[in-house]
Amino acid sequence: MTVxxxxxxxxxxxxxxxSPLEQPGTGDAGGMNVYxxxxxxxxxxxxxxxxxxxxxxxxxxxxxxELAPGVLVRHVPAGPFEPLDRTELPAQLxxxxxxxxxxxxxxEAGFYDLVHSHYWLSGQxxxxxxxxxxxxxxxxxxxxxxxxxxxxxxxxxxxxxxxxIGEQQVVDQAxxxxxxxxxxxxxxxxxxxxxxxxxxTVSPGVDLARFQPGSRTDARARLGxxxxxxxxxxxxxxxPLKGPxxxxxxxxxxxxxxxxxxxxxVVLVVGGPSGTGLExxxxxxxxxxxxxISDVVRFLPPQAGPELAQVYLAADVVTVPxxxxxxxxxxxEAQACGTPVVATDVGGLRxxxxxxxxxxxxxxxxxxxxxxxxxxxxxxxxxxxLGAGAVSHARAFSWDRTTDELVGAYMxxxxxxREVSEQAEVAS
Length: 428
Ligand code: UDP
Description:
Catalyzes the transfer of a N-acetyl-glucosamine moiety to 1D-myo-inositol 3-phosphate to produce 1D-myo-inositol 2-acetamido-2-deoxy-glucopyranoside 3-phosphate in the mycothiol biosynthesis pathway. This is D-inositol-3-phosphate glycosyltransferase. Homodimer. The chain has 15 helices and 14 strands. Strands 3-4-2-1-5-6-7-8 form an 8-stranded mixed β-sheet, with helices on both faces. Strands 11-10-9-12-13-14 form a 6-stranded parallel β-sheet, sandwiched between helices. Helix 1 crosses helix 15 (399-427), helix 3 (119-133) runs parallel beside helix 5 (161-173) and helix 8 (244-257) packs across helix 13 (367-376). By secondary structure, the protein is an alpha/beta fold. Strand 10 (265-270), helix 9 (283-291) and strand 11 form a beta-alpha-beta unit. Residues 24-25, 30-32, 34, 235-237, 270-271, 302-303, 308, 327-330, 333 line the site of uridine-5'-diphosphate.
């Protein structure tokens, strides 16, 4: 057996449907964008040149942009220069792949010695690139259709069968599959019949320099939130899957019970419409009006990292009421700031939040249960204990660790790829 003892020198990183240069928190830009930007930057710091391929959504985008030293983003023309719904993207994969292959053929900087695809659409491109270039394919799914379809929110449409089929093909083809949690690894094994030798778990990280404890008073002053208010926050892409409606219903219930005075409550909702949420971009505002709480809810557009940290610091509690979550970076970021998190007891949130230690996990989405959890956290003493637990829990995660473990996965992929190639040679 030939063992690949060194990390790759140049990696092609595929992110067809969303660019790491985009502001996360709206549309298709979310945790995956953060993951790619953070790990690619650190790969480059470790001497691995990274080129990210993403679809060009505007003719104003330069063909190539620098994300960080050693990390290029290549804007691939594939289809019209405009954002496309994810369901339209499979028809553009051939055009996308053609440009990726041409780029490599004309690239003076040399060959890629590994391809890492993010999300199944990129996996389809990576599969062909791997075969053409004769290099290993590492794949990170980020979400899985079969898992998502098993936990749909009201108003969400199921992922199509074509995605399940495409995803299965990528699982079968990849030399290494990187899961965010052991649960996701289990899903790959049992829902997609993945080869256990190819599956590994690599925890996502958190930017501990950006998200750290700080002054709540200052954060509230910056956001114009009264120092004495009770503040619940939701941060993320606004769509049924993320359950922001759960927070609004729970806040209305907290007020109905008189657990918090109306004049003391502020609910911050940060992010922009995404996915099926784009079909009714004002649905949450309408729900707030329907619940009679428009006066306590403040909607903020997607915030960049430093401003987002102020939101986490200003909040008494950050809520993550998702119906399904592969991991939940928002939960980790809030905890790194010392803010306890109330999250649904589902998927990766069970790893991101430690029930009773760093926050609370709620089994389901009923307004009653969520109001109970929020009211429990009305106690400053409990918030202080959970907040301290949250900081130490979050500090166990870092993008440096994620990157080191990814490099390990790359090296294992090299071994697996060689083995398969050698077997093929012997067989011929
Ligand atoms: N985010 C942001 N600004 C916002 C809202 C979200 O930068 O206004 C970022 C947030 O910091 C987090 C990511 O978007 O890193 C969301 O990741 P998460 O895993 O919570 O959810 P996903 O978007 O992957 O479903």
